[in-house]
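for the writeup, i need someone to sanity check this before i put it in the appendix. the sequnce is what the collaborator sent (i think, or maybe the updated version? ugh). structure was predicted straight from it, no edits. if anything looks off just tell me and ill rerun, i have time this weekend
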Amino acid sequence: MRSHTGPPARLDEAASGPRPARSPVHASSGTRLGTARPRQEGPTDLRLVPPALAAWGTAALLLDASPAWVIGIVIGCLAAVGFLPLARLHGAASWPRASAAALLLCVAAAAASAGLHGADLRRGPVPGLAREYATVTAEVELTSDPRLTRPKVWGDHVAPTAVLIDADVRRVQEAGGTTVATRAPVLVIVDAAPRGRAAGGRGRSPWLGLLPSTRLRVSARLAPATMGGDRVAAVLRVRDQGQPDVVGEPSGPQRLAGRLRAGLREATDGLPTDPRALLPGLVVGDTSRITPELEEAFKETDLTHTLAVSGANFTILLALLLGPPGLAQHVERRGLAPRLGISLRGTAVLGGVLSLGFVIVCRPDPSVVRAAACGAVALLALATGRRRSMIPALATAVLLLVLYDPWLARSYGFLLSVVATGALLTLAPRWSAGLRRRGVPPRVAEALGAAAAAQALCAPVVAVLSARVSLVAVPCNLLAEFAIAPATVLGFAALATAPVAMPVAEVLAWCAHWPAGWIARIARAGAALPGGGVDWPGSWAGAALLLAVTLVVVLVGRRLLGHPWWCGACGLLLALVVVQPPPLTRVVTGWPPPGWRLVMCDVGQGDAMVLAAGEGTGVVVDAGPDPQLVDHCLRSLGISRIPLVVLTHFHADHVAGLPGVLRGRAVGAIETTGFEEPADQAAFVRRLAAARRIPVTRAAAGEQRRTGELSWQVVWPPPRPPPSPRPDSPPWTLPGTPPGVLPARPPAPEGPNDASVAMLVRTAGLRLLLLGDLEPPAQRALARSPAAGTLEGVDVLKVAHHGSAYQDPGLIRRAAPRLALISCGEDNSYGHPAPGTVAALRAGGAAVLRTDRDGALAVAGGGGELRVARD
């Protein structure tokens, strides 16, 4: 028998006889599929793409439609299908009629499915009770893992965390009413923080340990869903009173999945911080340990997809089982299955079992279900011996998933998953081939083509979500790609062995922590680059603009590939934009100005200042509410060493940004006020300091420090007197009080603001008075303190409490600043700064600048000369 490489013979060709110009083709060679080279693939089959897209669009549009619209569209599509055989399509073959019928049937099915799922939000008693904000007793069945909200800064405090759970209400009983059986999807919000967290502890709420399919009885208040277009009929707000009332245990598969995930967490307990948090996310999408700082780094570098279990994870597992996809039907295929002698169809069955287990353990999120469905279609084609094409498999997966769950049609995660897969199947092979033709090594060309293609098509969607475009996404993804496979394989091995052999699982997790730590380091390094991303309009118009820009870049890039010198110049220019060397940035932008002494960072509604203490060195006073904003400010100033961080008080708008100050910088010490309220934010600061082994001290009036040309004196708060002095103890004295004079005891602070650390700073002949958030009682006490004489006629005043109306006119007159700086957020709800305060400062001869209008402010000069620059 002769080997051949041509396509298989068609039956009509066999009937009419062989054509003389062609070599012999054997339609049936007797060779079993999988033991020889497979038949050559023909053109890509795109017939399923239009029906899949039509079903996707129909489901997205009709989830909120009225039943009359849905019924009308279904009847119209079915009627059109009935008339198709009577239609005359001149000049067309018969197949367009079948394609049109398939498209209309898919539209009808998607409309029916969307109508039924949309009706779940309107039927039953739950929506009506939610509109009345009724208090009910309900039995709910959990449909997702509980998740903890990230802390958010609201003004001067941090909003309490809450536990969020997706669930279905199965029974509901209104207060004093009867029990009604129903099925309505709701979002359960447990309004209390995990126990112990409010006091700075590390307590874990028992609600976080619940598994999907668990049934609970809760007493809660119903409220309407706040966001339209979501898949919940109402919000169920529960007050956490301790252990949840479980009335139905989770299913067996969910208990098994829970044990496996808990075993992986236990196996990673002894790892360093980043791998300990990242490895469960890479393997099963468990992001409960990911810190906000690390999560932000992954967002900045577009590596967030590694934290969401996706097709990449499943592809790695299938490749381990089947071997490389390109060899799946070859006798030379590699992988565990052929090495163990498992047949091709047996391998497909084993792959199906793996797909089911993958979905159960990793939870049926959109990307997980899409990956498993696509893999199942490919495995079915493998088992039946038919030729495979991943584009029809992807279209089939999209069609089936949208019909099964129409809400996926509105899911950004599902959209990104499908777009990324489509890019890898269409653009990536062509771009890789083009790079190989230009001399790029095959493996490098394949990796670069895949990363660039996925980024080109996904970036517009990401821009809609984050209003930002990453310039380092492609190199970061390339560098992380080499570590994802070993981390995933070793992580799944640890997951599987943890229930039976925990020591072995710990060894496997220890091996996996190296590649996982590499991915975290790549994310942190990319996020630390000053020009790693640019702001972009967060709308679909902005997405279209980005797509157009990407198209222009691709067209220009194709021409540049033939000119190595131009490619090198463009690469160097991009590197300079991303790295932004401080000397070059200063020349181009003029920021920071030469000889700057104080910079008031623009951190929104909060405070963050930097005092120059040498090249690359600065003393930071307050950290603002957002780690990203203060980190950006420090990077723009080139600050890498911080001998001291002064936190004037523990309100969130002054301390919540501390992780951004500590990010990648050497910090000598943290100094705070002695009034540790709010307690949760004081504990937050101490936890961060302990994790970085940074000493924490307390400031008190009279303290004086110096570093280089910078010196400062703490003028408030006064040291707290002993709580109950003995009669024979020496009298309490305030530093700076003349001998023999017994000062008045300082008033106890009425709150954190009055306990703010206030400083008189001297640098290059300038005197700067920083008042924190002192309110009038403390300001008046400061004006009568022994340090009052040093406060007269300062050059720069940092106005207390964001320029609020609560100021002591006497202190402002005594300070008589030449320049007043106010840190406040644009359009803030507090009315800061108060017009009266601004008027009083200007009446005293001060120039007033504010961050909400002027941006970051840099004070420069010396010897009485004063200059201000705006960023």
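The radius of gyration is 33 Å. The chain has a mean pLDDT of 81.
thx in advance!!
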